[in-house]
Write a structure and sequence with these properties.
Blueprint (H helix, E strand, L loop, with lengths): L6 H33 L9 H40 L5 E5 L2 E4 L4 E7 L5 E7 L5 E6 L7 E5 L12 E10 L5 E2 L1 E8 L2 E3 L6 E4 L2 E4 L3 E5 L1 H4 L2
Antiparallel strand pairs: 1-9, 1-13, 2-7, 3-6, 3-9, 4-5, 4-7, 7-8, 10-11, 11-12
Length: about 220
């Protein structure tokens, strides 16, 4: 499993820290300038009170912005910890993932597909990693989810090599209009990846976005 790191999760926090440092530098510079202005003002023409109050208001605003940045930094760090903890908690779970790709292992691959109501014809295509059609058949036109189990053989019975394959499902209604379809796969989560801007799950070397996860199950519950 790839080494876990917090690069993506800490990126926003690092940016916030950098902004905070910049504001703090500006704040210190403002204090120096204001002090020098007060020290060197003309006694016969002192600083106008309204202008002085305005500068103090600016001073207060900068100070508040620095504090807000610090609070935001704390919230980002807390969110990063919560996201990492949540992602790690998925390891060992079985997840249903929206998408057409799964692995053929020892002559066995499985997908779940569905089409909109009213389908009168459903076509199923299995494609290899290069997009070549290696198997085709007809699917179930009924409503709801349907499982498609493939034994890894093409249409002339040749057993194909293990690897990644995609399922493409097309559905037509009675008038020959295309209907919407969906394909999903089930996997056991093997790790968590924090290298991107958002955490993701790992299934082998494949990175799975949380946005594509449809369901999560304990493996013991899935096998009962």
């Amino acid at each position: 499993m790839p080494a876990l790191n917090g690069l993506g999760l800490n990126l926003a926090a690092s940016n916030t820290q950098a902004d905070g440092v910049s504001l703090a530098d500006d704040f210190d510079t403002f204090l120096v300038l204001l002090t020098e202005q007060l020290k060197n003002q003309d006694p016969l023409s002192p600083l106008d009170s309204n202008e002085f109050v305005g500068q103090l208001v600016q001073f207060s605003g900068v100070e508040q912005q620095i504090n807000q940045n610090r609070n935001l930094e704390s919230l980002i760090s807390l969110n990063a910890i919560n996201s990492a903890t949540s992602a790690v908690g998925f390891i060992g779970k079985e997840v249903d993932v929206l998408g057409p790709t799964t692995d053929l292992v020892n002559g066995s691959a499985r997908w779940t597909y569905a089409s909109a109501n009213g389908a009168t014809a459903v076509s199923i295509l299995v494609k290899d990693a290069n997009g070549k059609i290696v198997f085709q058949t007809e699917g179930d036109t009924g409503s709801g989810d349907h499982s498609f189990n493939w034994d890894g053989r093409d249409n002339i019975g040749t057993l194909l090599a293990d690897g990644s394959y995609d399922l493409e499902v097309s559905a037509l209604d009675a008038n020959g209009n295309l209907l919407s379809t969906s394909v999903s796969t089930s996997h056991v989560v093997t790790g968590a990846d924090f290298s991107g801007l958002e955490p993701a799950l790992l299934v082998g070397d494949n990175r799975i976005s949380f946005a594509n996860i449809l369901a999560v199950r304990d493996r013991s519950a899935a096998n009962t």
